[in-house]
Design goal:
- It is built from no helices and 11 strands.
- It is an all-beta fold and 118 residues long.
- 0% of the residues lie in helices and 59% in strands.
- The radius of gyration is 14 Å and the shape is globular.
- The strands form 2 sheets. Strands 2, 4, 5, 6, 9, 10 and 11 form a 7-stranded mixed β-sheet that branches. A 4-stranded antiparallel β-sheet has the order 1-3-8-7, with no helix packed on it.
Amino acid sequence: QVRLVESGGGLVQAGGSLRLACEVSGISGSIHAMSWYRQAPGNQREEVARITEEGHTRYVDSVKGRFTISSDFAKSSVYLQMAALKPEDTAVYYCYSMVAEFGLQEYWGQGTQVTVAK
């Protein structure tokens, strides 16, 4: 059974930092890319950051210069270092993995809440 387990969410004051982590287990193929998405109440889920197995990264404009995605593909793990947090960063953050397994498969974590207080 494939599992994506996130950790590191919580409550932080504006301007503070948090580090999210996600570990993927139970896959039999190789990971092509991993991402962090977020969804705030009333909003659509959006991709915050993505990293590929080649190490290429991309970020949504609103987090550029503040968030950093990194990964350890050998450990099937992905991280999101968040700094200079703003109240508008408040959301549930989801880990996502694209795996080459019987074609390309997409897997999601359960989500971790990040709340940024004013």
